[in-house]
Specification:
The structure is a single chain. The chain is largely without helices or strands. The protein contains two helices and four strands. The chain is elongated and about 70 Å long. The relative contact order is 0.06.
Length: 278
C-alpha cells in the first residue's frame, strides 16, 4: 500500500512538472521573450520579469504572486485561474487577455492597457488600476472592493453583478458601461463620466456622484439611498423606481429626468424636500 502511494505521489509530481514546456521556460529565462509558449501551472512568484514578451502564451493556473512584470507584453495571453497576488503589473499590455477566475488581490495595474480583456469571476480587491485602459473589458461577477480606478478608461465595460463597494472611480470614463445588478455601496464616482451607462437594479447606497456627468444614465429600480448628486449633470437621466430616500439632489442639474415611481423620504431636490414615502 505504501509503495502504491509512493508511485502515485511521483506521478503527481511528474504531471505537474509536465504541465508547462521546459524548453519554453528556459527560452523565457534566456531571452526574456517567449511568444505562444506553454507555461501553464508554472510558478514564477517573487521574480523580477520586467519587459518580458509572452504574447499569445498559455499561462493558465500560473503563479505570479509578488512578481514584477512591469512594462511586459501579455497580449492575447490565456491566464485563467492564475495567481497575481501583490504582483506589479504597472504599464503592462493585456489586450484581449483572458484572466477569468484569477486572483489579482493587492495587484498594481496602474496605466495597464487591457482593451477587450476578460476578468470574469476574478478577485481584484484592493487592486490599483489608476489610469488603466479597460475599454470593452468584461469584468462581470467579480470582486473589485476597495480598489482604485482613478482616471481609468472603462468605456463600454461590462461590470454586471460585480461588487465595487468602497472603491474609487473618481474622474473615470464609464461611458456606455453595463453596470446592471452592481453592488457599489459607498463608492466614489466624483467627476466621473457615465454617459449612457446602465445601472439597472444596482445597489449604490451612500455613493458619491458629485459633479459626475449622468447624461442619459439609467438608474432604474436602483437603491440610491443616501447618494450625493451635488453638482451632477443629470440630463435625460432615468431614476424610474429608484430608492431615493435621504438622497441629495439639491444642487444637481436636472433636465427631463424620469422620477416616476421613485421612492422619496427626506429627499432633497432643487425645488424642495419630498417625503412621499416616509
Amino acid at each position: 500500500m505504501i509503495k502504491k502511494l509512493f508511485y502515485i505521489f511521483l506521478l503527481s509530481i511528474t504531471l505537474h512538472a509536465a504541465a508547462y514546456n521546459l524548453s519554453d521556460y528556459e527560452a523565457l529565462k534566456k531571452t526574456n521573450k517567449c511568444e505562444g509558449c506553454n507555461l501553464s501551472d508554472v510558478d514564477l512568484s517573487s521574480l523580477t520579469l520586467k519587459n518580458i514578451d509572452l504574447t499569445a502564451s498559455n499561462l493558465s493556473n500560473a503563479i505570479f504572486s509578488d512578481t514584477n512584470l512591469e512594462r511586459s507584453k501579455l497580449d492575447d495571453v490565456i491566464m485563467t485561474s492564475s495567481n497575481f497576488y501583490k504582483a506589479n503589473l504597472r504599464n503592462v499590455t493585456l489586450k484581449r487577455a483572458r484572466l477569468d477566475d484569477s486572483n489579482l488581490i493587492d495587484s498594481d495595474l496602474s496605466n495597464a492597457i487591457m482593451i477587450n480583456a476578460s476578468m470574469r469571476n476574478s478577485d481584484l480587491e484592493n487592486a490599483i488600476l489608476d489610469s488603466a485602459i479597460l475599454s470593452n473589458a468584461n469584468i462581470n461577477n467579480s470582486n473589485i472592493r476597495m480598489a482604485s480606478l482613478v482616471k481609468s478608461n472603462l468605456t463600454n465595460i461590462l461590470l454586471r453583478g460585480s461588487d465595487i463597494s468602497l472603491s474609487d472611480f473618481s474622474q473615470a470614463d464609464i461611458t456606455n458601461g453595463d453596470l446592471s445588478l452592481l453592488i457599489a455601496i459607498n463608492t466614489n464616482f466624483f467627476e466621473s463620466t457615465l454617459l449612457n451607462a446602465h445601472f439597472y437594479k444596482a445597489n449604490l447606497s451612500q455613493s458619491n456622484f458629485k459633479n459626475a456627468d449622468l447624461t442619459n444614465t439609467d438608474f432604474s429600480n436602483s437603491d440610491m439611498s443616501y447618494v450625493d448628486f451635488t453638482g451632477a449633470n443629470m440630463i435625460n437621466t432615468s431614476l424610474f423606481g429608484a430608492d431615493l430616500r435621504y438622497a441629495n439632489l439639491r444642487y444637481a442639474k436636472l433636465l427631463e429626468v424620469n422620477l416616476d415611481k421613485a421612492i422619496f423620504c427626506e429627499t432633497r431636490l432643487p425645488w424642495g424636500v419630498r417625503n412621499d414615502n416616509c
